[in-house]
Predict the 3D structure of the following.
Amino acid sequence: MMNEKTNSQDEARGTPGFLPLYRQVKSLLVRRISERFWQPGEILPSEMQIAAELGVSQGTVRKALDEMTADRLLVRRQGRGTFVARHDESRILFQFFKIVPETGIPVFPESHLRRVETAPASPEEVARLALRPGDSVIRIARIRSLNGRPTISEYLALPLERFPGLVSQADIPNNLYDHFASDYGITIAGGDESLRAMAAPAEDAALLGIPEGTPILAIDRVALDLDGKPVEWRYSLCDTRHCHYVSGLR
Amino acid sequence: MMNEKTNSQDEARGTPGFLPLYRQVKSLLVRRISERFWQPGEILPSEMQIAAELGVSQGTVRKALDEMTADRLLVRRQGRGTFVARHDESRILFQFFKIVPETGIPVFPESHLRRVETAPASPEEVARLALRPGDSVIRIARIRSLNGRPTISEYLALPLERFPGLVSQADIPNNLYDHFASDYGITIAGGDESLRAMAAPAEDAALLGIPEGTPILAIDRVALDLDGKPVEWRYSLCDTRHCHYVSGLR
DNA sequence: TAGTGGTCTAGACCACCGG
DNA sequence: CGGTGGTCTAGACCACTAG
C-alpha cells in the first residue's frame, strides 16, 4: 500500500517535504518509466489495476496520469489504454523543432553529419551540462536541411558518460532524441532555449551557402531528462531567409 | 440549471458539437469574464456557490476552474478564494515578454513613444488582424529600453474599432495589455510569435544607436483575446547584443 | 471560528475500442 | 461483449486565511 488513510506514515501536510498522494503516485510512475520498467510505446496497466496495486483510489491515479499526459510523458486513448509516449518524428516536430519553412508546413529536417569527436569538456560545456571538471563530452557537428535547402549549422555536446558507444556507431541517426530513448533509456522531457541574432561566421556561412556576415538566428538549447538533469547542449545557427522560428504564447 | 442528469437536453455525446459539462461551465465562466461581469482582480463566488447556481456538482465546477487557472485566466489562493487574473507587470513579464537582459534577471522595459496615427489598414494589416478591407487601424511606434539601454524598435497595429479614444489620450501607457483590460475590457489571452534574424534598417538602427545592417532579431506577434480573435499586430526589432529571447520547451 | 480551496475516496454511467 | 479511459456526482477530511 502507498499510504494509510490520512498520510499518517508520511510527513504531515504542513511540513516542507510533503507531497500530495497523487504526486507521490506520479513520482513512482515517472521513476518506472525513466528506469524502463515500462518502455516507450508500451501500454500501462489500467487505472483500476494501478490503483489496486498501490492501495489508492482510481481518482488519485487518474490525477497522476492526467498530469503525466500534460507533461507529454503519456498518451491516453479512450477505449484502448494509457501508453508511454514515443519520441517519434511528429512529437519531436511538435515539441522541440520550432523552425518552420516559409510554406508554413512543419517538416522534419534531414541531417548531414560533419564531425564526431570526443574531448575533455570545455569550461562552458562543464557549466551548461552540469559536469565535473575533467569529464569528457561527445561533440557533433552537422548541417540540417529543410526541403533540401541547407539551413542550420548545428553543434552538439553530450556527456560521454551517459552515451557510451555513441561515437563508434557507423551512423548517428537523424532523430537523436528517439535514439537517446531507444538505445540509452534517456527521455528528453523538456529544455530551455535562448535566441539572438548574429553575423554568420565564415565557416558556417560557407556551409550554408550564404555570404559571411549574413544575419542569422543563433539558438542555444539545453535539453533536460525526466529528472531535470542536462543531457545535451545544442547550438544552432539558422539561416532564416526562408524559414522562421515559431513560439506560442499561452 | 445547466443540465439534466444525462445531457438529455443537449446534443448527445457522440455528435460533433458535444461539449462535456465542465467545458460548458468553463465557457459560461469565460464569457462572464470577457463581458466583465467579473472584473480583473475580483473574487469569484466559491465553488459550492457556482455549483449550486448552475445545478452541477462541485467537482465539475472545480474542473472548469482548474482549466481556467491553467489558462492563466484565474488565480486560486487556498483559504481565500478564486480571483480573475490581472495583467500586472509580473504576469506580462512571465507570459508575454520573453526578452531577458544579459544579467538573466527579467525586467519590464520602459517605453519612449515616437508616433501614434490612425490610417486605413494596409493589406497586410487586414490579413494579420482579420479585418474587413477599408477598416482603420491605430499605428504606434515606440522605442523600448532595457535597464536604460534602447533595445527594441517596436511597431503596433490595433483595430481602431475596438480601441475608440486611444489615439487622443495624452499618453499611451507602457503596459498596454493592462490598459486594454482596464479601459477597453479586452483581455489578451495568448498569441503567436515568429522570429527571424535580419539586418537593421537605417531608421531603426539610428534609433537604437547601432550601425545600419547590424544583425537584429525581428519578432512578429499577433496577440489574441479570449475568443481567439486577433487584437494586436506587433513587430519588434530587437538589438540582441546585450539581451536574448528565451523560450521554454515543455 | 467559519469559509475557502486542496486532496482523497467510492461509485455510477458513458463512449470508444478490440476481439 | 468486456475492458478501457472520460465524465459526473456526493461526501469526507485537511490546511490555509480572514476576522
Summary: Chain B has a mean pLDDT of 93. The helical segments of chain B are 21-34, 47-54, 58-70, 89-95, 123-128, 176-184, 202-208. Residues 5, 13, 20-22, 56-60, 63, 77-81 of chain B lie near DNA strand D (CB under 10 Å from a C1').
